[in-house]
């Protein structure tokens, strides 16, 4: 029978927790960055289409930042 000592089990558990933490951190980072960047690109596109520079860019950027913060709180509740 091949049994792992308790030390190896704890090490595997710690490794899993580290990888879970890194995955959660990267998910938060990617979510925040993409939310803000998508809103900036949408605002820039609408500004060029309607010739309202820089107003729609500013509004969409602020909305994107608000959405990113809301996503951050939502992810924190999980």
Spell out the key features of this protein.
78 residues; mainly alpha; 0% strand
**Helical fraction:** over 70%
Query: Which blocks of ≥5 consecutive residues have pLDDT under 50?
Result: none
Number of strands: 0
Instruction: Kindly report how far apart the N and C termini lie.
Output: 39 Å
Mean pLDDT: 88
> What's the shape?
rod-shaped
The major pleated sheet works out as: none
In terms of structural class, how would the helical and strand content be classed? mainly alpha
Radius of gyration: 21 Å
* Count of helical stretches: 2
| Approximate strand percentage | under 5%
- Listing every helix as H and every strand as E from the N terminus to the C terminus, the arrangement reads HH
Structure overview:
This protein is an all-alpha fold and 78 residues long. It has a domain at 28-78. Helix content is 87%, strand content 0%. It contains two helices and no strands. The longest helix has 45 residues, at 6-50. The model has no long low-confidence stretch (mean pLDDT 88).
What's this, in brief?
With 78 residues, this protein is an all-alpha fold. It has helices spanning 6-50, 55-77.
SSE arrangement:
Layout: H1 6-50, H2 55-77
Helix pairs in contact: 1-2
């Amino acid at each position: 029978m091949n049994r792992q000592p308790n030390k190896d089990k704890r090490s595997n558990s710690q490794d899993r927790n580290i990888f879970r933490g890194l995955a959660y951190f990267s998910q938060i980072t990617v979510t925040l960055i993409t939310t803000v960047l998508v809103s900036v690109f949408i605002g820039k596109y609408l500004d060029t289409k309607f010739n309202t520079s820089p107003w729609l860019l500013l509004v969409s950027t602020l909305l994107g930042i608000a959405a990113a913060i809301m996503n951050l709180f939502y992810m924190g509740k999980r």
